[in-house]
Amino acid sequence: MDDFADKKALRKKYLALRKELLKAEVSEKSGAICKRIMELPEYQAADVMLSYMSANNEVCTDIIISDALDKGRAVFLPVTHNGREMVFKSFLGKESELTRSRFGIKEPLCGDIFDEEKFIKNEQKIIIIMPGVAFDEERNRIGYGGGYYDRFLEGLFGMADKKNASHRIAKIAAAYEMQIIPKIIADEFDCKPDKIITEKRII
């Protein structure tokens, strides 16, 4: 089995396993994961948070989104664009700001687009909360197959590297312990999170 087929099989397997989680399990585990994230120094120091909006039994991010807004941080959520591109738009916390994407995921309808050059120039600290289907203990990641985060992060860090600002950006993945697997064969352009937070530990 080649690496691509292997990733495809793993993606199918772990999406199916996640789908079987009960609502109570999702709520309990997500609460524990969010608590760990909010205790991270990277979270506490952040001026800006880019987070996914959870769907389909992903680790629920509602708690950290609300907390970040309450603390006065700028919050941005992803919007898929032109079928291949992902941008982040500002979110102020109102349900009326959101619409459903073609994937059934809530997205900001009219928010301001995240301007990485502006935030990097202003020397603000950024935390990115990443989803994923599966991870290993080397922090390799299997996403949903579209490459959205890999392309977005490549562009963001390409700009940050030029400004010597990469150290001000933290990539944090939220995952259930059941999503941690023995080994993932990483591709050249796969972007690893700096840390993976599960309900049991920090990797």
Describe it:
This protein is an alpha/beta fold and 203 residues long. The protein has one domain (3-197): Rossmann fold, CATH 3.40.50.10420. 34% of the residues lie in helices and 21% in strands. It is built from six helices and ten strands; from the N terminus they run H-H-H-E-H-E-E-E-E-H-E-E-E-H-E-E. Strands 3-2-1-6-9-10 form a six-stranded mixed sheet. Strands 4-5 form a two-stranded antiparallel ribbon. Helix 4 links the parallel strand 1 (48-51) and strand 2. It is globular and about 40 Å long.
How would you describe this structure in keywords?
alpha/beta; Rossmann fold; two-stranded antiparallel ribbon
Helix content: 25-40%
Radius of gyration: 16 Å
Proper CATH architecture? 3-Layer(aba) Sandwich
Count of extended strands: 10
Largest sheet at a glance? 6 strands, mixed
Please identify the top-level CATH class. Alpha Beta
The CATH superfamily is known as NagB/RpiA/CoA transferase-like
- Sheet/helix structural class: alpha/beta
What's the average pLDDT? Answer: 92
Number of domains: 1
Tell me the β content: 15-25%
For the termini, the CA-CA separation is 28 Å
Low-confidence runs: none
Q: Which descriptor suits the 3D outline?
A: globular
